[in-house]
Amino acid sequence: MTSLDRFSALLLEWNQIHALSGVKNLAQIQTQIVDSLQVCNFLKPFNTCLDIGSGAGFPAIPLALHFPSAHFTLLEPNAKKIAFLHHVKSALNLQNITLKRVRLQELSPIQVDLITSRALMNAQELLHLSDPFLKAGGYFLFYKGSLLEQEIVSLPSERFVYGKRVYFYRQKEIL
Q1: Model confidence over 18-66: pLDDT tens digits?
Q2: CA 28 to chain CA mean position, Å
Q3: In 46-133, where do the E strands start and end?
Q4: What is the DSSP letter of 47?
Q5: In which order are the strands placed within the sheet that holds 97-100?
Q6: Which residues contact 19 (CB under 8 A, 6 or more apart)?
């Protein structure tokens, strides 16, 4: 059994009791894993990543398994979700993960190469709050939903300065 299979089984087990996410079966979990890893083909190399609002572990857990030499800091203020993430970290022996039960606004200063987030808040607010944590030359990777076009249009152009790049990823809609 692969680590991603073990993660899927753990999520399915915990989700039945704690309602961590909307996934109901292994097929839906696998879809979320594939969605999390689709970006690996265009990510430039990075050593550190901050995942904001980690929830049930997407995209951070699949990315941490795919990039074992990078260090991931996962932020999740919800007690039951952070408990699940601690369990996953222990069960999968994920030494490249640090878990913090805080909101972004409460995080002590750190500097990372990559900042990820999945459907947490609008892009403009997320950029504003997370920008101080991104190293010069680093980049943002936000997994966004159906409001992506409106959020991009509303972004001020000055958010794309200082050598930082913003990437948005949206899963292709299946008709």
Answers
A1: 999 989 999 999 999 998 998 898 888 999 999 999 999 999 999 999 9
A2: 17
A3: 48-52, 71-75, 97-100, 112-118
A4: S
A5: 97-100, 71-75, 48-52, 112-118, 134-143, 165-169
A6: none
Judged by DSSP in three states, 150 sits in helix
What's the chain's average pLDDT? 86
Q: What is the 3-state secondary structure (H, E, C) of 11-42?
A: HHHHHHHHCCCCCCCHHHHHHHHHHHHHHHHC
Q: Which helix (H) or strand (E) holds 169?
A: strand 165-169
Q: CA gyration radius for the chain?
A: 16
Contact between residue 95 and residue 118 where contact means Cβ atoms under 8 Å apart: no
Q: Which pairs count as long-range contacts for 147-150, CB under 8 Å and 24+ apart, including other chains? A: 147/122
Q: How far apart are CA 95 and CA 55, in angstroms?
A: 19
- Asked if 164 contacts 136 with a C-beta cutoff of 8 angstroms, the reply is yes
Structure tokens at 85: 């993430």
